[in-house]
Amino acid sequence: MNIQFTLKKNICLLVACIAFVWTSCRLEKISPVAESAKDITGTWKVISATRNGTNLIPVFDFSQFNIKFDASAGTYSLVNPVPFIIAADGKFALDDPNFPFKITFTATGSSSVTTVFNYPIVSGARQITLTFSPGCAQNSYVYTLIKK
Amino acid sequence: MKTRLRIKGKKLWLLCAVVLLGISLSCCYLIINSVNQPASAVVGSTVSITVNATSHTNSSGTAHMIFGILAPKGWNLSKNAKVTYTSSKGNGNMTLIPAAIINNHAGGLSWAAYMKSFFGLEGNLIDDMEWIPFQSDAIITYANGDLMTVAINIQITNIGADNNPTLVKLAYVIANDVNAFTFDGNDGDSSPTSEYYNEFTTPCFSLTGGTGDLVDFCNPQLTTIDPPKSLDNDIVTLTYNNNIVSTPLGTNAANPAVYICATATTSDGKTLNACTPGPKTMMTQTSAGSGVYQITFWPKALFGATTGQSIVSMTYYITNQAGTIQVGYGNTAAAFTYKFKCL
Predict the structure, then answer these.
(1) What is the assigned CATH class of domain B28-208?
(2) CA distance B246 to A63
(3) From B234, which residue of chain A is nearest by alpha-carbon distance?
(4) pLDDT by residue (tens digit) across A123-143?
(5) Number of domains in chain A
(6) Domain locations along chain B
(7) Which residues of chain B fall below pLDDT 50?
(8) Lower Cβ count inside 10 Å, N or C end of chain B?
């Protein structure tokens, strides 16, 4: 009969709708991409330096100073040193290879020094920003390094 | 028919007096009337200072009283000063305001930084000073038209904790934490001030004794060193100002650059020299004809100190390019002296 036909039609429609709804969602399993280890291997030079907020670049020659990091050996070396967080060559370590927040320098034969490690990407290039006091504790220096 | 406003002379004066009285009652002010402070003291002694102020309010409310002192950082007044007050609204103590407390008017700055940015160094010439902020431990309630007198007493123990003889202009500010350093908008009225705060800078205070070098915040110096406190592993900027007095070096135009002739004393008792006019010792003029010459150097490198050597002090002269003319401390034949230390 007409009523039966309409009912059947509606049931079919309902089943079709449920089927569509059921199949429309698909659970996708996304595996998180592992954060890459921060490799700072290379030779870095100073591009910005301040002392208590005063720009030192125009008045002090940083052009000859370099720091070379070798991540595989965990060592660093200074070329033509300037007042820096550490005065001699030695070993370095990041507190976390993937998400580093601190860097520790240990000059050969002396105690280690830890400072905050900033590693931003600026204009497509990684930079290292270090804050430290090589002399009096009240004098704060901020050096920004870029890979040569 | 014309109608005329008929006021008799006597009534006109009365009207004027009422208007003036009304204006003066509607005004508020805070003023430091006097500061009782000794002209000099000896390093390590105890010094008492009293700051007398009057406050007149034009509204009612409650607030903490704020008090700030400008003093050399080396005195460490946040530890060495005890502040109390006696007032017509009661007596009490004033406690140090922690750096974490900021005021609505301060734009995110601590009270100490707010005072420094607002008042600066109050005429002192070396930026090695700090404002130390205190507030009353009690909240003060005031009514419209209240006249309050207050005497703030500061007791500084071990004055000159850095052991340096010092000449300095100490300064004080009184305010409240609600209005901070703002105006009441009635500028030009009959109040002594139109500010909710008042600062007071004292004449040069002389601190004698001590084993360090004289730190003169009051008078322009031929040479200054930045940072004022530094070690041999700091980067140091030495500035020579040829405009203070007439020196044997002559005019600024005659000296496109001057040179430093310095002798360092090391911790192992040796002396190291940097006295040859050349690129290493050259002080360049900040701009042509300015008469202000600067050199920025790393003391360890300038004097060629070895790894184990530390430089404890240096003496220096400013010379001409030929090294034949020397200018010393206070334009005399004595050398300038500087000790590398952090206090």
Answers:
(1) mainly beta
(2) 38
(3) A135
(4) 999 999 999 999 999 999 999
(5) 1
(6) 28-208, 220-339
(7) 1, 16, 18-26, 187-189
(8) N
